[in-house]
Amino acid sequence: MLKSKMKVLVERLEEPYRSVFVAKALEERPYEELSAQYGKSESWARVTYHRAREKLRAMIEEGEK
User: Fold this and answer.
1) Are 56 and 10 in contact (CB under 8 A)?
2) Rounded to whole angstroms, how far apart are CA atoms 45 and 38?
3) Tens digit of pLDDT for each residue in 1-51?
């Protein structure tokens, strides 16, 4: 049940947050690889992943209210 709810929330993320989150959290790809894929810096990849996590956390908290 929890897995399906999380999947729905991840699918609600806008790009590039969704694909960066999936690549980092589920596929365990390094930031270096993500930065090369998007043609951005490693800092960008780290910040984008962090923001995706924060967006997911906010969605979860919103659903609990």
Assistant:
1) yes
2) 9
3) 467 888 999 999 999 999 999 999 999 999 999 999 999 999 999 999 999
